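Morning!

This is the sequence you dropped in the shared folder:
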Amino acid sequence: MRHIDVEGIGRVSRIGLGTWQFGAREWGYGDSYASGAARDIVQRALALGVTLFDTAEVYGFGKSERILGEALGAARSDVVVASKIMPVAPFPAVIKQREKASAQRLGLTRIPLYQVHQSNPVVPDTVIMPGMRQLLDSGAIGAVGVSNYSLARWQKADAALGRPVISNQVHFSLAHPDALEDLVPFAERENRIVIAYSPLAQGLLGGKYGPDNRPGGVRAMNRLFGTENLKRIEPLLDTLRRVAAEVNAQPAQVALAWLIQLPGVVAIPGASSVEQLEFNVAAADIELPPESRDALTAAARAFRPVSAGRFLTDLAREKIGR
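The structure's back. Tokens below.
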């Protein structure tokens, strides 16, 4: 497993485990899953050197935090548990109370990385960050992070906190490479990290879907799985397949390897089984040649998906047979 040393947090595995699905019934969560598969996945992750486990108070309304804390057991204090607060009424007293509630669900006295889940469009970070700073000063958390922040908002959060906001968790993959333009260079320059969620684009980068093989369920409403976008992404998938063949790996593993070989980037794919976890973690052992990384980057930047509006229009037309 590759790792990166992060100030205030410690040694972070380049591939972590996202646990949104631990509390989400739409991804198969149930009581038997919580006490069985989830525990097995976490225990196997620990054995494979995974040290970053990401959750949030809103995942299953706290269920994800509880399941993760129980699954980690005695190891929970030895790894980097990252949780998030949704910035609703984010005043210092409220932030303190909600961090305490998350810590209790996780079974922790200190949350290593505590993140603001979304940028609040109305409340500025000058209101949000004093509460986070108090948590830092009291030792209740190890470091402050943000999620879904633009570069400009990240820098404002820095100023409001009065010390580095160490991480920014964003939607980032070969199919959604926007972070390459500004967030990744900033993280490299300032010794921060970018945490990539949905690093496999909900399975799109596995290469099995196409215009004639579209998924159902939750994925059906993701615009990337629209007919037109599945046509447009084919050159990127072809590049993925070619590179995968060259390095004797699977396309999804190459997609993860591309991410974590970028400076300051870690990825948090989810896993619904131990086998899927092992598949994801194996990507950390893949070394992509520079020319292959460049080819993937070029293909990612060339992908131009249709807008959400166009996707919904096309979807409606397909439903009525036009």
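Headline: Strands lie at 3-6, 10-13, 17-18, 52-54, 80-85, 111-116, 141-147, 167-171, 193-197, 265-267.

More detail when I'm at my desk.
O.
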